[in-house]
Amino acid sequence: MCYSAYVNFFHMQLENAGKDWKSAAFNYTFDPQIFQHVMSGVYHPFIQLGYGLEFESKAITAAALAQACVHSLSYKDLLSGETFAEICANTSTNNGNGFSLMQILDMIREDTLADDISYAKQPFTETNRAAAESLAIKYAKLWTVKSAKDAVDAKYGELLSVMALVYGSLTRPGHKVLLHFMLMHCLSSAYFLPIIFEFLSVDRQAKLLQAHCAVALETFAIHGSPRLYIPPELTAFDARHVAASTQSNSGNPWLEVFEKAIASDDLHVAKVVRSLWRGSILNAFHSQSGTAGGYDMPPPINWLYLAQLTTDTIQANYFKDVDPQTQEGKHYWIYGMIGCDEFWTEYSKV
């Protein structure tokens, strides 16, 4: 069936469901044959689904489901029924608490399986995919999300904080700031999780959060499991994390960031800024950083700093050929295996 036929089919199903159209949409989303496609293509069907729910649009939601159905399967085993059920069911590690994402990223870097991921200009070779997926399956099982609302909320805060930390800490010392296109999607897509959570049971919330994290771990692994070089500004306390409603417009530094994001010639900038703004509003994990009970939590995040870094760094026009723009000195997203020494050797020649 072609994309347009899927769109028509799902739109008709949602229309026929009347006021229960969101429930109908999620019955399809969590269908085993569709669910493993929802996170494919760097989360894009999932992102589209988030837009559909955020803007109360049956048309966008139908397009999201259709996109999932025609999307090639990016994660063949990771989100398959049996394997993913094992990921969600595992609560036996670390006294039932699992390990933190900070600990898991370190484990992935040190795992001998990571040695099977070889540097290539295009990282998605068959061998690299297989090794990265094996790593993601192994370590997604160690990140425990209990089926309770407080637990889901806390784990979402952890996920958002760690994805922001990775996004802003990839640049090796002595180089100009680099922002990675693929790893950026792990952050920008996370914006939609709380929007979708509103319409799900706690069990499904936990399942969706586990799926998002599992894909992020595979994305991290296939790009060379990069070490983090955290700039001091990134973990400086963000005293201005408060919501806009608590400040006058003239005193809210986020407004300038929003204006720059809206004016940006790259559509992804606004998406990243929205995720960072959500982190700022939630103040995710600011009061819980450090180590507690063997669970290594992420440090505080200066969300405003990261948002300003994004709007100031990404300058090229998304709608034009990027290469001539970068040759003129305009910065753009970086692609490739940023965790590998070979990447930085090639980058130094540019």
What's this, in brief?
Helix 10 crosses helix 14 and helix 14 runs antiparallel to helix 15. The chain is 57% helix and 2% strand.
Query: What is the alpha-carbon Rg in Å?
Result: 20 Å
Q: For the residues shown, what is the average pLDDT?
A: 90
What would you call the shape? Answer: globular
The number of distinct helices, counting runs of at least 4 residues, comes to: 17
Features:
single chain, about 350 residues, mainly alpha, two-stranded antiparallel ribbon, 17 helices, 2 strands, about 0% strand, globular
Textual characterization of the structure:
By secondary structure, the chain is mainly α. It has helices at residues 3-16, 21-29, 32-38, 40-54, 58-70, 81-89, 101-110, 126-140, 149-168, 181-188, 193-197, 202-222, 254-263, 267-282, 303-313, 322-327, 341-349; strands at residues 290-292, 295-297. A hairpin with a 2-residue loop joins strand 1 (290-292) and strand 2. Helix 2 packs parallel to helix 5, helix 3 packs across helix 5 (58-70) and helix 4 packs antiparallel against helix 5. The protein is globular and about 55 Å long. Mean pLDDT is 90; it is low at 239-246.
